[in-house]
Amino acid sequence: MRKPFIAGNWKMNKTPAEAREMVENLKELVTDVEGVDMAVCPPAVDLDAVQEVLADSEISRGAQNMHWESSGAFTGEISAAMLQELGVEYVILGHSERREIFKETDQEVNRKVQKALKENLKPIICVGETLEERENGKTREKVSFQVKAALAGVDSSPLTDVTIAYEPLWAIGTGESASAGDAAETIAAIREVIAEIAPGKEEEIRVQYGGSVKPHNIAEFMAEDQIDGALVGGASLEAESFAGVIKKCQKEEQNH
Ligand code: PGA
Predict the structure, then answer these.
(1) Out of 25, 71, 97, 185, which residue is the most buried by the measure of CB atoms under 10 Å away?
(2) Predicted model pTM
(3) Using one digit for the tens of pLDDT, what is the confidence trace for 46-68?
Protein backbone atom coordinates (compact mmCIF):
# COMPACT_ATOMS: atom_id res chain seq x y z
CA MET A 1 0.00 0.00 0.00
CA ARG A 2 1.30 3.42 -0.92
CA LYS A 3 1.10 5.94 1.89
CA PRO A 4 -0.68 9.18 0.97
CA PHE A 5 1.66 12.14 0.58
CA ILE A 6 0.65 15.78 0.77
CA ALA A 7 3.25 18.41 -0.09
CA GLY A 8 2.78 22.18 0.02
CA ASN A 9 4.47 24.25 -2.65
CA TRP A 10 4.69 27.79 -1.29
CA LYS A 11 6.22 29.14 -4.51
CA MET A 12 7.62 32.68 -4.03
CA ASN A 13 5.66 33.46 -0.89
CA LYS A 14 6.62 34.16 2.74
CA THR A 15 9.68 35.74 4.33
CA PRO A 16 11.60 33.67 6.91
CA ALA A 17 9.61 35.29 9.74
CA GLU A 18 6.30 34.56 8.01
CA ALA A 19 7.43 31.02 7.26
CA ARG A 20 8.31 30.42 10.90
CA GLU A 21 4.90 31.61 12.06
CA MET A 22 3.09 29.45 9.51
CA VAL A 23 4.88 26.22 10.44
CA GLU A 24 4.51 26.88 14.16
CA ASN A 25 0.75 26.97 13.60
CA LEU A 26 0.76 24.03 11.21
CA LYS A 27 2.72 21.86 13.62
CA GLU A 28 0.04 22.33 16.29
CA LEU A 29 -2.78 21.59 13.89
CA VAL A 30 -1.42 18.27 12.59
CA THR A 31 -0.06 16.71 15.79
CA ASP A 32 -2.67 13.93 15.69
CA VAL A 33 -2.32 13.13 12.01
CA GLU A 34 -1.36 9.56 11.21
CA GLY A 35 -0.94 7.63 8.01
CA VAL A 36 -0.11 10.62 5.80
CA ASP A 37 3.35 11.84 4.80
CA MET A 38 3.47 15.64 4.98
CA ALA A 39 5.95 18.16 3.61
CA VAL A 40 6.23 21.90 3.18
CA CYS A 41 8.34 23.30 0.35
CA PRO A 42 9.16 26.91 1.18
CA PRO A 43 11.48 29.27 -0.70
CA ALA A 44 15.12 28.28 -0.08
CA VAL A 45 15.86 31.27 2.16
CA ASP A 46 13.12 30.11 4.56
CA LEU A 47 14.44 26.58 4.97
CA ASP A 48 16.66 27.38 7.94
CA ALA A 49 13.84 28.96 9.96
CA VAL A 50 11.43 26.18 8.98
CA GLN A 51 13.95 23.51 9.91
CA GLU A 52 14.36 25.01 13.38
CA VAL A 53 10.63 24.76 14.05
CA LEU A 54 10.03 21.40 12.39
CA ALA A 55 13.21 19.50 13.30
CA ASP A 56 11.36 17.28 15.79
CA SER A 57 8.07 17.09 13.90
CA GLU A 58 6.53 14.69 11.40
CA ILE A 59 6.41 17.43 8.76
CA SER A 60 9.22 17.00 6.24
CA ARG A 61 10.79 19.81 4.27
CA GLY A 62 11.20 20.11 0.55
CA ALA A 63 12.89 22.59 -1.77
CA GLN A 64 11.34 23.99 -4.94
CA ASN A 65 14.35 23.53 -7.21
CA MET A 66 18.08 22.73 -7.21
CA HIS A 67 21.01 22.61 -9.64
CA TRP A 68 22.45 19.42 -11.11
CA GLU A 69 26.09 20.28 -10.38
CA SER A 70 27.68 19.94 -6.95
CA SER A 71 29.19 23.44 -6.82
CA GLY A 72 30.80 26.08 -8.97
CA ALA A 73 30.13 29.14 -11.09
CA PHE A 74 26.31 28.99 -11.25
CA THR A 75 25.22 32.35 -9.90
CA GLY A 76 21.88 32.21 -8.15
CA GLU A 77 21.71 28.42 -8.00
CA ILE A 78 21.47 26.02 -5.03
CA SER A 79 23.10 22.60 -4.69
CA ALA A 80 21.78 19.33 -3.30
CA ALA A 81 24.36 19.37 -0.49
CA MET A 82 23.22 22.85 0.61
CA LEU A 83 19.66 21.59 0.86
CA GLN A 84 20.67 18.45 2.70
CA GLU A 85 22.45 20.44 5.37
CA LEU A 86 19.18 22.26 6.04
CA GLY A 87 17.32 19.02 6.70
CA VAL A 88 15.59 18.89 3.33
CA GLU A 89 14.18 15.52 2.27
CA TYR A 90 12.29 16.31 -0.95
CA VAL A 91 12.89 18.54 -3.94
CA ILE A 92 10.27 19.64 -6.45
CA LEU A 93 11.72 19.35 -9.95
CA GLY A 94 10.34 20.46 -13.28
CA HIS A 95 7.40 22.42 -11.91
CA SER A 96 5.47 23.91 -14.83
CA GLU A 97 6.37 27.43 -13.68
CA ARG A 98 10.07 26.50 -13.93
CA ARG A 99 9.49 24.94 -17.33
CA GLU A 100 7.34 27.78 -18.72
CA ILE A 101 8.77 30.93 -17.12
CA PHE A 102 12.40 29.87 -16.65
CA LYS A 103 12.56 27.70 -19.78
CA GLU A 104 13.74 24.57 -17.99
CA THR A 105 14.07 21.73 -20.47
CA ASP A 106 13.31 18.02 -20.07
CA GLN A 107 17.05 17.34 -20.23
CA GLU A 108 17.72 19.72 -17.36
CA VAL A 109 14.94 18.18 -15.31
CA ASN A 110 16.50 14.77 -15.97
CA ARG A 111 19.94 15.94 -14.83
CA LYS A 112 18.42 17.34 -11.66
CA VAL A 113 16.50 14.12 -10.97
CA GLN A 114 19.68 12.07 -11.35
CA LYS A 115 21.64 14.40 -9.08
CA ALA A 116 18.91 14.52 -6.43
CA LEU A 117 18.73 10.72 -6.23
CA LYS A 118 22.52 10.46 -6.06
CA GLU A 119 22.52 12.86 -3.10
CA ASN A 120 19.63 11.09 -1.37
CA LEU A 121 17.06 13.78 -1.97
CA LYS A 122 13.62 12.58 -3.04
CA PRO A 123 12.42 14.25 -6.22
CA ILE A 124 8.83 15.32 -6.74
CA ILE A 125 8.73 15.46 -10.53
CA CYS A 126 5.99 17.62 -12.01
CA VAL A 127 4.38 16.78 -15.33
CA GLY A 128 1.23 18.05 -17.01
CA GLU A 129 -0.42 19.20 -20.20
CA THR A 130 -1.48 22.66 -21.34
CA LEU A 131 -5.12 23.43 -22.10
CA GLU A 132 -4.37 23.34 -25.82
CA GLU A 133 -2.74 19.91 -25.51
CA ARG A 134 -5.71 18.66 -23.56
CA GLU A 135 -8.19 19.99 -26.11
CA ASN A 136 -6.20 18.28 -28.87
CA GLY A 137 -6.27 14.93 -27.07
CA LYS A 138 -2.54 15.05 -26.38
CA THR A 139 -2.61 14.71 -22.58
CA ARG A 140 -1.38 11.14 -22.42
CA GLU A 141 1.33 11.73 -25.01
CA LYS A 142 2.62 14.83 -23.22
CA VAL A 143 2.82 13.39 -19.71
CA SER A 144 4.26 10.10 -20.98
CA PHE A 145 6.99 12.00 -22.77
CA GLN A 146 7.78 14.13 -19.71
CA VAL A 147 7.91 11.12 -17.37
CA LYS A 148 10.18 9.16 -19.73
CA ALA A 149 12.47 12.16 -20.22
CA ALA A 150 12.70 12.93 -16.50
CA LEU A 151 13.56 9.33 -15.60
CA ALA A 152 15.93 8.59 -18.49
CA GLY A 153 19.03 6.78 -17.27
CA VAL A 154 17.76 6.46 -13.70
CA ASP A 155 18.35 3.03 -12.12
CA SER A 156 15.29 1.17 -11.06
CA SER A 157 16.26 0.73 -7.38
CA PRO A 158 16.11 4.41 -6.27
CA LEU A 159 12.90 4.92 -8.25
CA THR A 160 10.85 4.21 -5.14
CA ASP A 161 12.09 7.55 -3.78
CA VAL A 162 10.51 9.36 -6.70
CA THR A 163 7.10 11.01 -6.50
CA ILE A 164 5.40 12.14 -9.67
CA ALA A 165 3.03 15.09 -9.42
CA TYR A 166 0.49 15.19 -12.24
CA GLU A 167 -0.43 18.84 -12.55
CA PRO A 168 -2.47 19.91 -15.58
CA LEU A 169 -1.26 23.44 -16.30
CA TRP A 170 -4.76 24.82 -16.79
CA ALA A 171 -5.68 23.72 -13.25
CA ILE A 172 -2.78 25.43 -11.46
CA GLY A 173 -3.84 28.48 -9.47
CA THR A 174 -7.05 28.80 -11.48
CA GLY A 175 -9.56 27.37 -9.03
CA GLU A 176 -10.51 24.96 -11.79
CA SER A 177 -9.33 21.45 -10.87
CA ALA A 178 -9.34 18.40 -13.09
CA SER A 179 -12.11 15.93 -12.30
CA ALA A 180 -10.88 13.16 -10.03
CA GLY A 181 -11.78 10.60 -12.70
CA ASP A 182 -9.81 12.41 -15.41
CA ALA A 183 -6.82 12.82 -13.10
CA ALA A 184 -6.94 9.13 -12.18
CA GLU A 185 -7.05 8.15 -15.85
CA THR A 186 -3.96 10.20 -16.67
CA ILE A 187 -2.19 8.87 -13.59
CA ALA A 188 -2.96 5.33 -14.72
CA ALA A 189 -1.24 6.22 -18.01
CA ILE A 190 1.76 7.50 -16.02
CA ARG A 191 1.93 4.16 -14.21
CA GLU A 192 1.95 2.37 -17.57
CA VAL A 193 4.99 4.41 -18.57
CA ILE A 194 6.72 3.56 -15.29
CA ALA A 195 5.92 -0.11 -15.86
CA GLU A 196 7.69 0.11 -19.23
CA ILE A 197 10.76 1.78 -17.73
CA ALA A 198 10.97 -0.27 -14.54
CA PRO A 199 8.56 -3.21 -14.38
CA GLY A 200 7.04 -3.59 -10.91
CA LYS A 201 7.82 -0.04 -9.80
CA GLU A 202 4.51 1.27 -11.12
CA GLU A 203 2.79 -0.01 -7.98
CA GLU A 204 5.38 1.52 -5.66
CA ILE A 205 5.90 5.04 -6.95
CA ARG A 206 3.55 7.63 -5.51
CA VAL A 207 1.71 9.80 -7.96
CA GLN A 208 0.08 12.96 -6.66
CA TYR A 209 -2.48 15.18 -8.29
CA GLY A 210 -1.89 18.94 -8.26
CA GLY A 211 -3.93 21.91 -9.43
CA SER A 212 -6.39 23.85 -7.27
CA VAL A 213 -6.51 21.23 -4.52
CA LYS A 214 -8.40 22.59 -1.51
CA PRO A 215 -9.81 21.15 1.74
CA HIS A 216 -13.23 20.85 0.06
CA ASN A 217 -12.11 18.80 -2.95
CA ILE A 218 -9.17 16.66 -1.74
CA ALA A 219 -11.44 13.79 -0.64
CA GLU A 220 -12.67 13.31 -4.23
CA PHE A 221 -9.09 12.82 -5.42
CA MET A 222 -8.18 10.56 -2.52
CA ALA A 223 -11.16 8.34 -3.29
CA GLU A 224 -9.37 7.28 -6.49
CA ASP A 225 -6.99 4.33 -5.97
CA GLN A 226 -4.57 5.76 -8.51
CA ILE A 227 -4.05 9.04 -6.62
CA ASP A 228 -1.64 8.99 -3.70
CA GLY A 229 -1.99 12.54 -2.44
CA ALA A 230 -1.50 16.06 -3.71
CA LEU A 231 0.95 18.82 -4.44
CA VAL A 232 -0.84 21.86 -3.08
CA GLY A 233 -0.06 25.46 -3.99
CA GLY A 234 -2.44 28.22 -2.84
CA ALA A 235 -4.12 26.16 -0.11
CA SER A 236 -0.72 25.33 1.44
CA LEU A 237 0.00 28.95 2.37
CA GLU A 238 -2.30 29.10 5.39
CA ALA A 239 -1.83 26.61 8.23
CA GLU A 240 -5.60 26.02 8.59
CA SER A 241 -6.27 25.23 4.95
CA PHE A 242 -3.16 23.08 4.54
CA ALA A 243 -4.00 21.15 7.72
CA GLY A 244 -7.54 20.80 6.33
CA VAL A 245 -6.21 19.14 3.18
CA ILE A 246 -3.93 16.84 5.19
CA LYS A 247 -6.65 15.75 7.61
CA LYS A 248 -9.03 14.84 4.80
CA CYS A 249 -6.39 12.39 3.54
CA GLN A 250 -6.47 10.25 6.61
CA LYS A 251 -8.04 6.92 5.85
CA GLU A 252 -10.76 6.99 8.52
CA GLU A 253 -11.91 10.38 7.18
CA GLN A 254 -12.09 9.02 3.67
CA ASN A 255 -14.59 6.42 4.73
CA HIS A 256 -17.09 8.99 5.92
P1 PGA B 1 -2.39 25.44 -6.85
O2 PGA B 1 -0.86 25.13 -7.28
O3 PGA B 1 -2.77 24.46 -5.78
O4 PGA B 1 -2.35 26.87 -6.34
O5 PGA B 1 -3.23 25.29 -8.06
C6 PGA B 1 -0.40 23.80 -7.43
C7 PGA B 1 1.05 23.80 -7.84
O8 PGA B 1 1.46 24.64 -8.65
O9 PGA B 1 1.84 22.94 -7.37
Answers:
(1) 97
(2) 0.96
(3) 999 999 999 999 999 999 999 99
Residues with CB under 6 A from ligand 1: 9, 167, 172-173, 210-213, 231-235
HSE at residue 62, side-chain half, CA atoms within 13 A, is 28
Q: Which of 214, 231, 242 to mutate to test the pocket of ligand 1 (most atoms within 8 A of CB)?
A: 231
- Alpha-carbon torsion angle 125, 69, 42, 99, nearest 10: -50
Domains in the chain, number? 1
> Which residue segment(s) compose the domain that 96 sits in?
5-255
Parallel/antiparallel/unpaired status of strands 122-127 and 206-210: unpaired
Q: State the DSSP code for 231.
A: E
Q: Give the CATH number, domain containing residue 152.
A: 3.20.20.70
pLDDT digits (tens, 9 = 90+) for 222-235: 999 999 999 999 99
Mutate to test the pocket of ligand 1, among 167, 170, 174, 209 (most ligand atoms within 8 A of CB): 167
Q: What is the distance between the alpha carbons of residues 107 and 129, in angstroms, rounded to a whole number?
A: 18
